[in-house]
Amino acid sequence: MRKILLSGYYGECNTGDDALLASSAFGCSRFLQSDQILATADKFPVLERDLPISPLYVNQEKIKSENLLRLQYHALTSDSIVFGGGSVFHSTDKLTRDADLIDLCRGTSAVALGVSFGPFRDSGAEKACKHFIDKLSYIGVRDEDSLQIVKSLAPNSNVEKTFDLAPLYPFMPKNPRKRRGLAISLCHYERYIGSNIEIEKVRFEKILNVLNRLTKEDVEELIFIDFNGHWLFGDTDIHDEMIGRLTNDIPVTRIPYNDNPATVLNLISTCKGIVGMRLHSCVFGYMTETPTVILSYHPKCLGWAGQIGANPQFTIDSTNFEEERLQVAIMKILHEKFHPPILSLPGAQKLALKNWEGAVCAMSQ
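Given the sequence above, the corresponding structure tokens read:
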């Protein structure tokens, strides 16, 4: 029996991370031949496939620090630890905790797949990151900035630029013959990192103005999708406010968080396009070959755009943009004048597979 502890930001009502959990569990089972996977969550999304995976945490602790004890126990009794997809290593606390998990593990290998590093949030994070990296047998990073960070901190580390794990999600919808509607996935950001809230307000008003200029002749429907249903960090409030202030007569559909990533993928595959701030709304657009406007709010968004070779006309800095630029990008999509990314989906899947090839090689040594 091969037991793997799968660590990531799972079970937090985030559609992108739900897909990454499914992709990571599928990879651990298929490529790493694991028949027991414990994932850092107390509940799971719909996984579509029968996989040997269980939640590591409990929703209601019966004793003090039960979930911490469970984490330490399963680290101690696992053959390997996989930090799988979606993880962004940037804070001292997380990096220190994850390094401690590797020290506890009875096995000989720990790998990080499809992850990002930085920008670091505090002064001790860089030192903690080097300590963490030194303990990993293999690292697959999804963007060039992360690759350079790892190489600068640990020049001898076994690291390579791979890809996001999501394109290996084990359920992919077939693109419909006819598409309708414009999907929209927005989020707040500055309020969560203690930055300037005025940036959020200006961004919101600009997006609202652009959407209010659209007519039913331009698009049949506006479809707001909550990619994050978390009670504090989710998208409910921003979408509620945006919908409440729309003044045009375009029909509006609201899609609350859905715990089945396949359902969301299928929905996006039926849309003419998507305007996405949430990184994985852009990833889902790419996976379904849906024309996408990337509204970047974080270096990881620009990293994604660079990875796929997104056309600059459809990659917009959400902290500083002119309304006209967003409007032109949307209209080009609605009038079938979108310029697709350079990297094909099969090419992305091949790069994503490098994560697992690297992990298999590292674990066999």
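The chain has two domains: 3-169+347-363, 182-334. Try to locate this feature in the token string yourself.
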